[in-house]
């Protein structure tokens, strides 16, 4: 955690930086010292009360976390989560559903006084209200007054249009009577609370007293004062005309009119009326809703929920869905993706806006999805490349070929010699397949870790043949690929087609030490009462031993530090990553998949029309990954001490133990007892004599 990152999250949540934090949603910050008055919130595992906390950020970590009021040391504290999106009934409307018991009595009194005094007496249509409105309209030259009951307003808002026709009014009256017959008065009033319109926030409609209370006052409905209730009720006559942010004087006058009516109806004493009348509007400064547009992630959440809930339940039951998204990481990733692609296009002479991308970032140990981008322009809803774009994955599959070899045969280790000489394989149609290396060269006999580090195609294809293509295909399928993995000779070079999220699931097994973990977007779901409906625990299955996975991770570290992904190490030398680049033969698709000790990310870059983009894994996807993690704090990848692992200095040419004369040596891990015992035949160079003889 850094102070900058925390401030960004507080800003997203709408917390207010102040000199003296005295109420929920306030915070103070002096360099690395923070005091936050955390808001109360109903989490899936219980209600969190408002909590004043103080702490310091030291060396990137939280220190001295305390309850500021009592001085008590705290083990943990949670910020209320960011609202990232909502499922609506086919309209662009936000809701925070409330129950009758949530709404204070003074709001109900104000509403009935202004909108429908005979609500509990009439049967959906009020003749008294119609006559009163008619008399007002005849005798007054001011704005006309309507005679609609609360029930009629609900019917019009929920079922009908705003057409000013007799036929619409007739249908409204009939439907109102039917509604009164079928439902109790309190049910109708509660529905009205959640449907009534309070204005616009840009293109988003604000419906319901729950959302209006948050939007205008940054508080729950139950905490409204009589004056705030009067303001909201007063706005119903004209949400734009009495908007307290744009028309303060009109809003104040209208609020005081409602307070006067409440006093006249004996709902407020004279003292209460005068006290409330003297208060300010107390509208919070920031008008924007605490809502982040993340359509690609919301698309994933919707799909995952459809396994357990119907579309109607998602739209109407008031479910609260707690997700895994990290809002600060999401926003930063979106910004970096757009700027990096623009830079790549410019540097390589590629047509502007022709490249597209998908990015998934997860927790490397749990599989929780922290950020997801499905389009270069992240707020754009449409084709979700992170979930739906199936593309050949190229060389990012090679670590799994190595892992399959280590798992299926004890004859392999990272120093095993593999031939990178010409290979010709007869296909079913009688043709010959002859794989080539990217550099069009042959490299002779190479240790396995070098073949992985330099991404030699011929050596990997030969390794696949030695292990057995059927064996490699079965292993990859068991590791997390849904559907059949065809046993093709070119499988070790990545002819397999996967979506970015499927590849993230595959790499999750490497990052987590051999456990198959499906990337998760949801942690819990509660009903509209806050009761837990479902937990989404981490579900893991071991597909490879920890020791063999350890070896492959070490090989992938070499890819980053010395191999095809060394650009990442050069740009970020103080954080160790493991990863692998991937490029398709026709240069259409660019991939990079990698992980630190804390995060895993998969990046795809290419064109939607599948035309040649003239990009490689190193020239497109890798720079996107690098730019993202240049700004995201992450734990370095530490393989750590394993009792059954020993490290040896190995000659890069022969795969044998290095000696003082070997020019290229790398420290390589082995399962204890399997390391080479023979020393490399490195010899000192012969020195020329003084006379050059």
From TrEMBL:
Pathway: Cell wall biogenesis; peptidoglycan biosynthesis. It comes from the Bacteria. It holds the Pfam family Transpeptidase. The keyword Coiled coil does not apply. Residues 1-79 form the Bifunctional transglycosylase second domain. Residues 91-263 form the Glycosyl transferase family domain. It catalyses: Preferential cleavage: (Ac)2-L-Lys-D-Ala-|-D-Ala. Also transpeptidation of peptidyl-alanyl moieties that are N-acyl substituents of D-alanine; [GlcNAc-(1->4)-Mur2Ac(oyl-L-Ala-gamma-D-Glu-L-Lys-D-Ala-D-Ala)](n)-di-trans,octa-cis-undecaprenyl diphosphate + beta-D-GlcNAc-(1->4)-Mur2Ac(oyl-L-Ala-gamma-D-Glu-L-Lys-D-Ala-D-Ala)-di-trans,octa-cis-undecaprenyl diphosphate = [GlcNAc-(1->4)-Mur2Ac(oyl-L-Ala-gamma-D-Glu-L-Lys-D-Ala-D-Ala)](n+1)-di-trans,octa-cis-undecaprenyl diphosphate + di-trans,octa-cis-undecaprenyl diphosphate + H(+). This is Penicillin-binding protein 1B. It comes from Kangiella marina. The lineage of its organism: Bacteria, Pseudomonadati, Pseudomonadota, Gammaproteobacteria, Kangiellales.
């Amino acid at each position: 955690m850094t102070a900058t990152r925390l401030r960004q999250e507080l800003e997203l949540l709408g917390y207010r930086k102040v000199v003296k934090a005295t109420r929920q949603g306030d915070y103070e910050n002096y360099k690395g010292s923070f005091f936050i008055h955390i808001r109360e919130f109903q989490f899936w595992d219980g209600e969190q009360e408002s909590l004043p906390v103080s702490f310091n950020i030291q060396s990137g970590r939280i220190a001295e976390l305390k309850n500021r009021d009592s001085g008590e040391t705290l083990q943990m504290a949670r910020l209320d989560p960011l609202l990232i999106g909502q499922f609506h009934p086919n309209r662009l409307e936000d809701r925070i559903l409330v129950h009758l018991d949530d709404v204070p009595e003074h709001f109900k009194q104000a509403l009935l006084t202004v909108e429908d005094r005979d609500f509990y007496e009439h049967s959906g249509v009020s003749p008294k209200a119609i006559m009163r409105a008619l008399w007002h309209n005849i005798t007054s030259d001011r704005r006309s007054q309507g005679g609609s009951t609360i029930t009629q307003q609900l019917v019009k808002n929920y079922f009908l249009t705003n057409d000013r026709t007799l036929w619409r009014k007739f249908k409204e009256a009939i439907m109102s009577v039917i509604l009164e017959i079928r439902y109790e008065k309190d049910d109708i009033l509660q529905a009205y609370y959640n449907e009534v319109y309070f204005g616009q926030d840009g293109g988003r409609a604000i419906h319901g007293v729950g959302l209006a209370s948050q939007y205008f006052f940054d508080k729950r409905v139950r905490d409204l004062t009589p004056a705030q209730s009067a303001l909201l009720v007063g706005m119903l006559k004209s949400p734009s005309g009495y908007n307290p942010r744009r028309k303060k004087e009109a809003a104040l006058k209208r609020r005081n009119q409602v307070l006067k009516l409440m006093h006249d109806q004996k709902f407020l004493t004279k003292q209460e009326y005068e006290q409330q009348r003297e208060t300010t509007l107390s509208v919070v400064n920031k008008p924007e809703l605490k809502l982040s547009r993340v359509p690609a992630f919301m698309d994933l959440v919707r799909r995952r929920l459809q396994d357990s809930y119907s579309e109607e339940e998602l739209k109407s039951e008031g479910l609260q869905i707690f997700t895994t998204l990290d809002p600060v990481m999401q926003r930063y990733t979106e910004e970096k993706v757009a700027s990096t692609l623009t830079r790549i296009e410019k540097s390589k002479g590629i047509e502007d806006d022709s490249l597209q991308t998908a990015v998934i970032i997860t927790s490397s140990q749990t599989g929780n999805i922290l950020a997801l981008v499905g389009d270069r322009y992240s707020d754009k809803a449409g084709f979700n490349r992170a979930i739906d774009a199936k593309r050949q994955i190229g060389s990012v599959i090679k670590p799994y070929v190595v892992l399959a070899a280590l798992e299926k045969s004890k004859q392999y280790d990272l120093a095993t010699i593999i031939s990178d000489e010409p290979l010709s394989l007869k296909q079913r149609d009688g043709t010959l397949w002859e794989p080539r290396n990217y550099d069009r060269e042959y490299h002779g006999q190479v240790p396995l870790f070098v073949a992985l580090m330099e991404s030699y195609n011929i050596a990997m294809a030969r390794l696949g043949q030695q292990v057995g293509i059927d064996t490699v295909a079965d292993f990859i399928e068991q590791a997390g690929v849904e559907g059949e993995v065809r046993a093709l000779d070119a499988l070790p070079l990545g002819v397999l087609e996967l979506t970015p999220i499927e590849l993230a699931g595959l790499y999750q097994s490497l990052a987590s030490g051999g456990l198959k973990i499906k990337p998760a977007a949801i942690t819990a779901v509660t009903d509209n009462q806050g009761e837990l409906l479902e937990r989404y625990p981490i579900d893991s299955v071991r597909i490879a031993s920890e020791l063999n996975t350890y070896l492959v991770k070490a090989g992938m570290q070499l890819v980053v530090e010395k191999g095809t992904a060394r650009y990442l190490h050069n740009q970020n030398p103080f954080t160790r990553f493991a990863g692998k680049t991937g490029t398709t033969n026709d240069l259409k698709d660019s991939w990079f998949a990698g992980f630190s000790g804390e995060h895993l990310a998969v990046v795809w870059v290419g064109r939607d029309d599948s035309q040649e983009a003239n990009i490689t894994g190193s020239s497109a996807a890798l720079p996107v990954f690098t730019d993202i993690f240049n700004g995201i704090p992450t734990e370095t990848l530490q393989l750590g001490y394993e009792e059954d692992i020993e490290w040896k200095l190995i000659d890069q040419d022969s795969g044998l133990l290095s000696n003082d004369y070997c020019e290229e040596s790398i420290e390589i891990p082995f399962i204890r007892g399997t390391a080479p015992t023979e020393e490399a035949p490195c010899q000192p160079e012969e020195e020329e004599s003084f006379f050059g003889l």
